[in-house]
Amino acid sequence: MSNQSVAPLSSLDTLSTELRPALSSGGPQRFCSVSASVMENTRCFANRFSDYKGALLPGQGGEAAVPAVVATVDKILKKVPTDVSDCDGGLYDGPAGVAYMLYHVSECPLFSEHREVYLKTAKQIIDVSVRYVDAEPDKNMRAAFLLGGAGIYAVAALIYKSLGLADFVKPLTKFRNLWEVCAPINFLECGSDELFVGRAGYLCAALVLKQKLGIEILSKDQIKSICQAIIESGKQYARRKRKPFPLMYSYYGTEYLGAAHGLSSVLQMLLSYQDMLSGAEKDLVWQSVDFLMNQEQNCNWPAELGAIIERENELVHWCHGAPGVAYLFAKAYLINKKPQYLDTCIRSGELVWQKGLLKKGPGICHGVAGSAYVFLLLYRLTGNSKYIYRAQRFAEFLFTEEFKAGSHSVTSVYSLFEGLSGTVCFLVDLLQPDQSEFPLFSVFV
What we know:
Elements: H1 12-15, H2 62-79, H3 90-93, H4 95-106, H5 115-134, H6 139-142, H7 149-162, H8 169-177, H9 179-182, H10 199-213, H11 220-240, H12 263-272, H13 279-293, H14 322-336, H15 339-355, H16 368-382, H17 386-397, H18 401-406, H19 420-431
Helix pairs in contact: 2-19, 4-5, 4-7, 4-19, 5-7, 7-8, 7-10, 10-12, 12-13, 12-14, 14-15, 14-16, 15-16, 16-17, 16-19
Family: Belongs to the LanC-like protein family.
InterPro entries: 6hp_glycosidase-like_sf, LANC-like, LanC-like_prot_euk
Keywords: Metal-binding, Zinc
């Protein structure tokens, strides 16, 4: 446990009451929009903070932050719907994401006195979500990670196991049985391989379970079959579209590059399971990683292949842009230690410091907390306290009048990816930076 100081959080408990409702959730097949039409000429607030000068922010140790985090959790719990008819949205912006947040907070020793209550509340929420996805008639949606059943079953298993319940095997079995759904090469018409609903997401959920439970949920043959389907799908698409690189994918007809629906998270999951790949398959993956690295434009990546970034309106989000793509290159660096991958992550971090105080809210998908997680990633990669300081400054900004007055509104203010549950995860991770990790997006395993 690190004793690093954190940004002042005294006004955190007011944050959730001052975020205004808007932004439609858009149904089960929704995806993270990249439309520029709703934005002004800039997507971010100006970063007026001075950079690191050798000292973290003083006077705010871990214990001081606990009451403010607890107050925010209490406010979230007053807003989260508890009826089975309100469980759409999965882990992304449904109640199940709140259950994951409660699990995450309960795992931090600083919140030990709240652990039992948080886990029991998490179980109540996730039980309703499990009933919802058990009744889902579309088997493809049951296999979805962030928007459907696979993610909900995975989080249910984590919560049950933390409570010491033998029942944790039941959601694990449901999760494991879904591999047959996503193994066929074209199981989803919209795109079978991305993170939210496709095969990369299913592998990502299995990776989270392996990390948190210490057991491999899927057999080697099951993992291999899914990885081979991803690679074959990418090869077929690249050949069909005459790409000058070996693997490419599309989602709803768009060739995304970012973490939410694009190439970077697909490749990240293949690297995470590279021990299951043949030598020839590994070569295809690494060639594609290097291809994507070469698509960098001024420390950022366009949302889709071939696009030119407009500097005044560029996307610097986890979902689209450097804050999400950085995790692929972090994984690449952890595997082979080649400095160009770390250098790419560092450049991404510099861009986030300049343009990561986002106007789209406090969340982790396209908000300030998602930006700040890049600094915690870089701290774990480099050990440089500069990155903790930068994360502290972004946390501090969340509680300013400038942010509250100028940020865009979110519908699911309680949610994990767009709302305050993801923000809480970030604030807890800022208290334990040596264990920090973007929610449900394992790199250090």
